[in-house]
Amino acid sequence: xxxxxxxxxxxxxxxxxxxxxxxxxxxxxxxxxxxxxxxxxxxxxxxxxxxxxxxxxxxxxxxxxxxxxxxxxxxxxxxxxxxxxxxxxxxxxxxxxxxxxxxxxxxxxxxxxxxxxxxx
Length: 120
What we know:
This protein is an alpha+beta fold. The protein has one domain. Helix content is 40%, strand content 44%. It is built from 3 helices and 3 strands. A 3-stranded antiparallel beta sheet has the order 1-3-2. Strand 2 and strand 3 form a beta hairpin. Helix 2 packs across helix 3 (57-65). The longest helix has 21 residues, at 35-55. The protein is globular and about 40 Å long. Residues 1-25 have low confidence and may be disordered.
């Protein structure tokens, strides 16, 4: 009986650990390996930066002073009890793309709905 409870407790802790995952970013693979995908990401990144700087001119000053800027122009998030998010983006140094990234996340709890947003 004791080993069964330990197994259940360990499984619950592991599941809760997954639920606390806010997001993880890492170098993109597969989906952004093609030139067409990268060109589309570059266009979306430039549009997102333009929109951000138009709404907040201080962001342009900050971006110029930053060593690099990681931009995810479109992150999609959805959930119904268990949720997830995914997006692709690019890192810019001096206004030039130096890498492509994916962002992935998961959550659980009282949630329902979907949204899409940008993050820089």
